[in-house]
Structure formats: structure tokens, C-alpha cells
Amino acid sequence: MTTEEQRDQPVILTIAGFDPSGGAGIIADVKTFVGFDCTPTAAITSLTFQNSEGVFGAIHESAESLRAQILPIVQEFRIAAIKTGMLPKREMVLEVARLIREMNLPAPVVDPVWRSTSGYELIEADVMDVLMVELMPLARVITPNITEAEKLTNLRIEDEAGMRAAASNLREQGARAVLIKGGHLEQRSEVGDQRSALGSSEGSDQAIDVLDDEGNVTVFRGEWIDTPPVRGTGCMLSSAIAACLGKGVKLKDSVGLAKQFVADAIRYSQEMGPESVIL
Ligand code: PLP
Fold first, then answer.
1. Where does the pLDDT of residue 123 fall: very low under 50, low under 70, confident under 90, or very high at 90 and above?
2. pTM of this prediction?
3. Considering the domain boundaries, does residue 86 fall inside one?
4. 255 lies in which domain range?
5. What CA–CA distance (Å, rounded) separates 17 from 172?
6. What is the C-alpha separation between 123 and 113, in angstroms, rounded?
């Protein structure tokens, strides 16, 4: 790639946790941005300790260090899109919201990260409330999985109708657009919840995601790829949506392209085995 081509690439910012093993968080985000020919920038909210076995702990940054990381980036580059992931402390959510308003930054893709696939709580208990009130109204789209959507709405989600209701509920609470990712029903059944995969319970093997963009609802029906849980798929999906938005693609089309990207990554990890680095 020529320097000129590189200069023309949209610059995307991820504000998220760092997973040194590369399966999730900032490394997954950065690989995704590069996969969409975008230039990555990143601010670290937490240094986590993890590998494919699980999450063993984390040391969080502060609002002050987050601001100190983000300011020089946004002062130098024209940021085309932002994705937020793990925001472990209230003060960080408030700081990100403040910076978006103050610096007139693009409306972010907000992935309301709560637990890792292995069940580790990545954020402090009082974060979700402030995320809903302060950050959700600034977002272009919020991308909860089923577990996160249930936590944010207090609704029980069993099927597509439940996903639509939860998306509508979140919009009533101030979100401009909501993408509810159905894939996690399968994973919950593996950690003791007896429900089966959303698609399978409806007699097909589809993975369903519901996008409610300002009241326009689109249901994405993808093939359910039967693998053990692949880490970082939520990180990749929200990053891919941000990359596409940064390139000027409409939200609905961005979600379609992002889903395709993640499906390819899951298929690739299936071919390469569980220890493979995806992408
Ligand atoms: N670690 C970090 C730093 C993350 O940001 C996330 C999710 O966003 C996770 C872990 C959880 O990823 P997974 O659901 O793949 O376990």
C-alpha cells in the first residue's frame, strides 16, 4: 500500500480493554480495523490478564489516564468513527461521554461489555446505569448480546419477539439504534442455562440479530456456525460496524458487512482449531 493510500484511510478509535493474548479487546479491534482498510488508534481502559482458558484479573486505568490517551489522538487525527468496549469504571464512562461532547467526536458504536464468555465480570457493578444514562444517548448504535440486553432492560428474552421488544425498550430509554445479538443464547445454555440456541429452538439453525434503527427494524438471519465459543466476536462485530460507518456506509449495511466479517473469522478459527488466532 502506498503512503497516499494509507493517508486516505479512515482513522478509527477503539476505547476498550487490552487482552494480551489477542483474542478479545483492543488487539481484536485493531485487527478488524485493518481488515477493513482503516487506520487503527486505541485507548486502553484496562489491562486484563487472560488467555483461552479464562480471565484471571485486570488492572483498570483511570478517567485521567483515559483522557490523557485520547486527547492527543483526537487533536492530531480526524477520527472517522469510534467504538467503545470494556469501560470498567463509572468515571471512565463519564469521561468518554464528556470527551465526545467536548471534542465533537463522531457518535460511537457502544458495545456494553459486561462479562467475558468464560463468565468473568469485566466491569464494576455500578457501571451499566451510568452507561445507559450518559453514553447510550450519544451512541450511533449500541450492540448488546442477549445477556447484556436482559440486564439493561430487565426483560427476559426467549425469542425474536423478545429481542424486538428489548431493542424497542432500549430505544425508549434513549438509544438511537440498537443491535441485539442473538448468538449468545447458545453460549448461555453451555454455562447451565437450559435454553437452547435461539435459531435451533425455532427449528432452524440460524443465528438471529435484530437491528432497530430509529424504529426501522431489520432482522439479520445468518447461518448458525456450530463451534465452541470463539472469543472476541462481540469486539470484532462492533469494531467492524465502526470501520464501515467510518467509511461512510449506512448503519444497516455496516451491520451486514460486519456480520459477514465475523462469520468468516469464526469459520477460519474452526478450520484452524481452538488455539488459532482469528483473522
Ligand atoms: N476481554 C476484553 C478486554 C474485552 O473487551 C472483552 C469483550 O469485549 C472480553 C474480554 C470478553 O470477550 P469474550 O466474550 O470473547 O470472552
1. very high
2. 0.91
3. yes
4. 3-267
5. 29
6. 8
Nearest alpha carbon to residue 242 among 106, 134, 149: 106
CB burial of 94-113 (b: ≥16 within 10 Å; e: otherwise) equals bbbbebbeeeebbbbbbbbb
- Residue 197: predicted pLDDT: 46
- Residue 232 CA: nearest ligand 1 atom is 15
- Contact assessment for residue 80 and residue 246, using Cβ atoms and an 8 Å cutoff: yes
Please give the single-letter amino acid code of residue 98: R
Domain of 161: which CATH number?
3.40.1190.20
Confidence of residue 92 (pLDDT cuts 50, 70, 90): very high
Q: How far is the CA of 23 from the centre of ligand 1 (A)?
A: 8
Structural domains of the chain, count: 1
List the beta strands (DSSP E) in 52-158.
54-60, 79-84, 109-110, 141-142
For 19, phi then psi, to 5°, come to -105, 105
Indicate if ligand 1 lies below 6 Å from the C-beta of 117: yes
Is residue 202's pLDDT more than 50? no
pLDDT of 185 strictly over 80 = no
84 lines ligand 1 (CB under 6 A): no
pLDDT tens track for 38-67 = 999 999 999 999 998 999 999 999 999 999
Among the atoms of ligand 1, which is closest to the Cα of residue 58? 3
Q: Which of the four pLDDT bands, split at 50, 70 and 90, describes residue 200?
A: very low
Question: Within a domain: residue 158?
Answer: yes
234 lines ligand 1 (CB under 6 A): yes
CB 231 near ligand 1, within 6 Å: yes
As a whole number, the mean pLDDT across the chain is 89
Looking at residue 247, what DSSP letter applies?
T
Nearest residue (by CA) to ligand 1, atom 5, is 25
pLDDT at 187 over 50: no
